[in-house]
Specification:
heterotrimer, A alpha+beta (about 750), B alpha+beta (about 160), C alpha+beta (about 80), A: about 750 residues, Aldehyde Oxidoreductase, domain 4, Aldehyde Oxidoreductase, domain 3, 3 domains, 5-stranded mixed beta sheet, 26 strands, C: about 80 residues, alpha+beta, 5 strands, globular
């Protein structure tokens, strides 16, 4: 695809988002803001045990309570057989999700859903939960990923045999999978190396931390037709999950996208939605369910905690000779940590001949982990970029020069196998080096760290429609939830193609019955993929506008061109006609062939990988161990920024989540296997007073597979921060921290041991 | 449970409601009065998404009982714009893209307005500490803090 | 040319690189399954594929040229 000349009218500008007014006035309807007449309140009973067999569940007393209209357990949903666990080629194992939505046979973590009720008031629902009698046979539990791998660890799943090892194990274990990526010969590479650094690291499970708890309303009529309103990162996915988990046909229900109050990967999978639908079907009434913050922490998210070892060898001149890493990721109660992506991303910014990466996916008695912004990549980058920093230090090389010396470029064979096409790794690192921040003086007790990051960016399926209204305005309809301003980008793209003003276009996110299928809003793919669908649908409209103009002028359509929002004769040979604006043609639509409506449904390919380079300054309080980030600059290749303000916003938000991961955030379990900090007071995400401004530099190395060069933006900014902060702390204190979070007690202990 | 009858003022209008004595002001606003602009993020006073003004003071409405509104003045996000005219903070938040998902935005706007009402010329540090009780997970706070400073400058210029 | 990363221990006697001629991912998997029975089910079971550096998360009909380099990768998920 040719990159269109970058002389855009709308792409690259910063218009106010179309949904903005609703969101600053309180009008916008998020998940918990809907209500329906005669609505019931649904609530979930959750396991207080980290691991127990469900001997029996007696719901009779709860069901008999006045005001209780439905009670549900796993017995009310079909058990999904092993060989029917997947839908298409998606990696989601619905057998596991079924057991996660309502526990079957065993509970596997503190907070695992056991039963649900729907009642006429929240107070009655609470009373009903207290009347459900569950007989638990408490089993030994295991929380820590390393403990879970021991031979004597309690086994969570009797049918889980480690995949990816030969011969196939003869007994079940908590190690779900082993993956390995190799390139060249690391042994030979290390033998050549002048300096070799090997370190072990630990990171803790952290939650996506969206401010809006999960919420849903489901309403089912007597004929089984249902409607579901909920925030999610993909209402088509919610539809697929509910259909699969409840065994109902997709045509029987319709999912409406509520405004979504943050997701970051945590609102991809079903939790409440199938349960609310089930309760609604059983009661024949609308059922609303909203999680408490404690439920969000105990039973949704988080991402993996991990143990990793990284070994890198380099030559005196700064070339990396060999690199190895072993990544061991917590999957939570069911297999499926992002260890594969961790393995593939960590060394991706570099051209290394000899690489070996091994990953393990390990279950333990924690909530089932799910995607969190560039899933797996920040953990791998934390260890790898820390070791690279140490090598640069030992070789007395500037850390950015060291990375530039090894930087991946077009044609580089990535550590996970394939060759890169056009990428902006070098451009990104160079822009970081050239930034005034990099040469700025540091104060006392301050240090500076840098780190790089990589994310694939994904493409996928999308559908869009562009309907031209009779007054010359247009409606853009697409099907990806707008989680951070994509309505604006879609309107900009349509305005660019149609040549009409941005404010003449109204973008809407349609429900599952009003537009063709769409993949989830995740993988940094919405602006790329949904944007391509909108671009194609708008081009379809332009074709129709040319046809209509041709009819109005009674000339051949080939003799009509569309430029700057008007139809013109292609040349003077075609005839002498005044240009027809979109509004002129729209007004005549009924007489020239009917409504003007463009459509596109596509499976996009060609997402371009993205690289980031971050610079972080910290100040360390030697007496308390408190680390303060005092300056931060994030540089990233966006390919092309459609709406630069929202690109900057993604970068700033990702950085701050990474800072939280580095400094404060962690899941803390007691010896009883219960989560001890399921609230924002004790699970401390960064607040405004913790932070400086986050400077951003958008590099634009256009993606050759997109008409405007878009790559993808949302995920890579969370990849470098943990290492950047750690490297800055090492520079400030001389102490290299190998365990996150670097909370004040941990740093203080390290400072005392180190000095 | 016998409900309490409460007479209060919300966004300048007299309002009467019945509430369970255990209901929070946030529950009353959202569930009884359909003022769903105030959001519930934690119901423990940690996230600030439910921020409202109570007699001129910013409070987490999840930590106030509905019954406590008796005879007092409540201001919510729904009362911030005057007719079709947005408050400068609302407008600058939009112009400077200070929101992504938008769930925390009402709380930030209410809290920021409370700050500018008492301190029309805050420093960046003052803004950051004043807003430290409002959590945002999307923006990293950068554009929020800038918007508050820029709206303050604009309002001082009038 | 096809590189399989960790399936080789189980199916290809440790050989990570295999020459196969096929026009699409579907044909490639069928061809491999003919030579290494059972590998087809693994490759179809939710693996992503990279063809000449470009990743396809849900491959089926993607064209492969005679000199293409194809990698099978674990399923990937974005956030």
């Amino acid at each position: 695809m040719d990159i269109e000349a970058p002389s855009y009218k709308w792409v690259g500008t910063r218009p106010v988002r179309p949904d903005g007014i609703d969101k600053v006035t309180g009008r916008a309807m998020f998940g918990a803001d809907f209500s329906l007449p005669d609505m019931l309140t649904g609530k979930i009973l959750r396991s207080p045990h980290p691991h127990a067999r469900l001997v029996s569940i007696d719901v009779s007393k709860a069901a008999a309570l006045r005001g209780v209209k439905a009670v549900a357990t796993a017995a009310d949903i079909p058990e999904i057989p092993v060989d029917n666990a997947f839908v298409g080629d998606a990696p989601t194992n619905f057998r596991h999700w079924s057991s996660n939505v309502l526990a079957r046979e065993k509970v596997l973590y503190d907070g695992h859903a056991v039963a649900a009720v729907a009642a006429t008031s929240p107070a009655i629902a609470d009373a009903a939960l207290a009347l459900i009698e569950v007989d638990y046979e408490v089993l030994p539990h295991v929380i820590d990923v390393k403990d879970a791998m021991r031979d004597d660890a309690p086994v969570l799943h009797d049918d889980l045999f480690t995949a990816g090892v030969e011969p196939k194990p003869d007994k079940p274990s908590n190690v779900a999978k082993r993956v390995e990526f190799t390139l060249g010969n690391t042994e030979a590479g290390f033998a050549e190396a002048d300096v070799v650094v090997e370190r072990a690291f630990r990171t803790k499970a952290v939650h996506q931390g969206y401010i809006e708890p999960h919420a849903v309303i489901a309403n089912t009529a007597e004929d089984g037709q249902s409607q579901v309103w909920c925030p999610s990162q993909g209402h088509f996915m919610i539809r697929a999950a509910c259909a699969k988990l409840l065994g109902i046909e997709i045509s029987q229900f319709r999912v409406f996208p509520a405004e979504i109050g943050g997701g970051f990967g945590g609102k991809i999978n079903p939790y409440l939605e199938p349960v609310a639908l089930l309760l609604s079907r059983k009661s024949g009434r609308p059922v609303k369910m909203v999680m408490t913050r404690a439920e969000v922490f105990r039973a949704t998210g988080p991402t993996s905690g991990a143990a990793l070892t990284v070994k890198i060898g380099a030559l005196k001149d700064g070339r990396i000779a060999a690199a190895e890493a072993t990544l061991t990721f917590e999957a939570g109660a069911f297999p499926g940590s992002p260890v594969g992506a961790g393995c593939m991303t960590g060394f991706a910014p570099y051209d290394i001949t000899n690489v070996k990466i091994v990953g393990y996916d390990v279950v333990s008695n924690r909530p089932k982990c799910c995607a969190y912004r560039a899933p797996g990549a920040p953990i791998a980058a934390y260890g790898i970029e820390s070791v690279l920093d140490e090598i640069a230090q030992r070789l007395d090389l500037d850390p950015i020069d060291f990375r530039l010396k090894n930087a991946a470029k077009e044609g580089t064979k990535a550590a996970y196998g394939p060759q890169f096409g056009k990428i902006g790794c070098i451009e990104t690192l160079t822009a970081a080096k050239d930034h005034p921040h990099y040469g700025a003086p540091l104060g006392p007790n301050q240090g500076r760290g840098v780190a790089a990051g990589f994310w694939f960016n994904f493409a996928g399926q999308a559908s869009a429609a562009v309907n031209v209204n009779e007054d010359g305005t247009a409606i853009v309809t697409y099907g990806n939830p707008d989680i951070g301003g994509t309505r604006a980008s879609m309107a900009q793209i349509a305005a660019e193609v149609l040549g009409i003003d941005y404010d003449k276009i109204r973008p809407i996110v349609a429900d599952t019955s009003s537009i063709g299928f769409n993949d989830i809003t995740a993988g940094s793919k919405t602006t790329f993929t949904a944007g391509l669908a909108v671009h194609e649908a708008a081009k379809d409209v332009v074709g129709q506008l040319r046809e209509r103009a041709a009819k109005m002028w009674d000339i051949s359509v080939d003799a009509v061109v569309w430029e700057n929002g008007v139809a013109r004769p292609a040349s003077s040979n075609a005839g002498d006609f005044d240009p027809l604006a979109l509004a002129d043609i729209a007004a005549m639509a009924g007489k020239t062939g009917g409504p003007i409506s463009g459509h596109a449904s596509l499976a996009a390919t060609g997402a371009g990988p993205t690289f980031a380079a971050h610079i972080c300054d910290v100040e360390v309080d030697q007496d308390t161990g408190r680390i303060t980030v005092v300056r931060y600059t994030a540089v990233q290749d966006a390919g092309r920024a459609i709406h630069p303000s929202y690109v900057e916003g993604q970068m700033q938000g990702g950085v701050v989540q990474g800072i939280g991961w580095a400094l404060n955030e962690e899941y803390i379990y007691g010896s009883d296997g219960r989560l001890q900090n399921p609230g924002f007071l004790d699970y401390r995400i960064p607040v405004a007073s913790d932070l400086p401004m986050i400077d951003t530099v958008i590099v634009e190395v256009p993606n050759p597979n997109h008409p405007y060069g878009v790559r993808g933006v949302g995920e890579v900014p969370i990849v470098p921060p943990m290492a950047a902060v750690t490297n800055a702390v090492a520079s400030a204190t001389g102490v290299r921290m190998t365990e996150l979070p670097m909370s004040p007690p941990r740093l203080l202990a390290a400072l005392e041991n180190g000095s | 449970m016998i409900k309490d009858h409460v007479s209060t003022t919300i966004n300048g209008e007299p309002v009467e409601f019945l509430c369970d004595p255990r209901q929070t002001l946030l529950d009353v606003l959202r569930d009884e009065l359909n003022l769903t602009g105030s959001k519930e993020g934690c119901s423990s006073g940690d996230c600030g998404a439910c921020s409202v003004m109570l007699d001129g003071r910013v409070v987490c409405s999840c930590l106030v009982l509905g019954a406590e509104a008796e005879g007092r003045e409540v201001e919510t996000i729904e009362g911030m714009a005057q007719g079709e005219t947005l408050h400068p903070l609302q407008r600058v938040f939009l112009e400077e893209a200070a929101l992504q998902c938008g769930i925390c935005t009402p709380g930030f706007l209410v809290a920021a307005k409370a700050l500018l009402d008492r301190n029309p010329d805050p420093t960046e540090t003052e803004v950051r500490y004043w807003l430290a009780g409002n959590l945002c997970r999307c923006t990293g706070y950068d554009k929020i803090v800038r918007s508050v400073l820029d709206a303050a400058a604009e309002m001082r210029g009038k | 040319m096809v590189l399989t990363n960790w399936l080789n221990q189980r199916f290809t006697d440790g050989e990570p690189e295999i020459e196969v001629s096929a026009g699409t991912v579907r044909q490639l998997i069928a061809e491999l399954d003919g030579r290494f029975p059972g590998i087809g089910a693994e490759l179809e079971g939710g693996m992503a594929v990279a063809i000449d550096g470009e990743i396809f998360p849900d491959p089926f009909l993607e064209p492969i040229r005679a000199d293409s380099e194809v990698f099978f990768l674990p399923p990937l998920e974005g956030g």
